[in-house]
Amino acid sequence: MPSGPITLRRLRLAQLPTPLEPAPGLGAAIGCPGLWLKREDLSGLGLGGNKPRQLEVLLAEAEAAGADTIITTAGAQSNFCRATTAACAELGWRCILLLRGDGTAEPTGNLLLGRLFGAEIHWIDTADPYADAVQERLDALEAAVRQRGGKPWQIRLPGRTGALAAAAAISLADELMAEWPAPPDLVCLAAGSGLTVAGLLAGIAKAGIRTTVLAVSVQQPASFIRPLILRRAEEATELMQLDVRIDPGRLVVDEDFIAPGYGLSNPASLAALSLAGRAGGLVLDPAY
Questions:
Q1: β-strand 36-38 against 20-22: which pairing, if any?
Q2: Is 271 exposed, middle or buried (0-12, 13-18, 19+ CB in 10 A)?
Q3: Tens of pLDDT, residues 53-86
């Protein structure tokens, strides 16, 4: 039985809490009256996003271990890699990225920003973030840093750091509880690794409300990502020693927007970017 909630160690890197704002123009444009936006794009740390609130916890763990080099992996247009590199630049740490692809990707968007922030970039020719070869390369990069006398710390969100990143995202639910005039019927967000979704589910369970979370998958089919999100949510509550139950009925996963693949634009996604800009003054990440 849990002995009581714990508090995660954090490095104060992000601009939190992010504001919650009404979006009547965008809501009208998409047929969603009563739409509000949680402005995670204003979280700072290299153009913001949802990842800085995770990095505050993940990098606090690395700092406690005496690390001076962060090694992580994702796709070429990963917002996590972009934010991690920005955080390392601020902290004066070395950042090594293992990106999926053949290395011919044009340096635009998050990849360009990662280079700007000083990342050392390596490539692995796979599209599968869960491939065994990815872990093998990460371990080899870590060994090389140690051989040179560095103190590496490896972060792989599908791996052992997943539960910690999900627990860090419970703060998103905590902020929403404080900002909402009343709990909404539905919260919608994109899901790559699904860890922010998992943290939000855990936070909703902690608050005891009946809000449904709609996760729009950007990469994995619902048959894969939904059970993973639920498992990470359970792991987050266990890590935080919260005596709550995750209700699977609170999670809906939409897999209809993956094509043509992770980080690849199509006419519908470009139209959505344009609509968000015109109707809401928003700049959205094309990968999500």
A1: antiparallel
A2: exposed
A3: 999 999 999 999 999 999 999 999 899 999 999 9
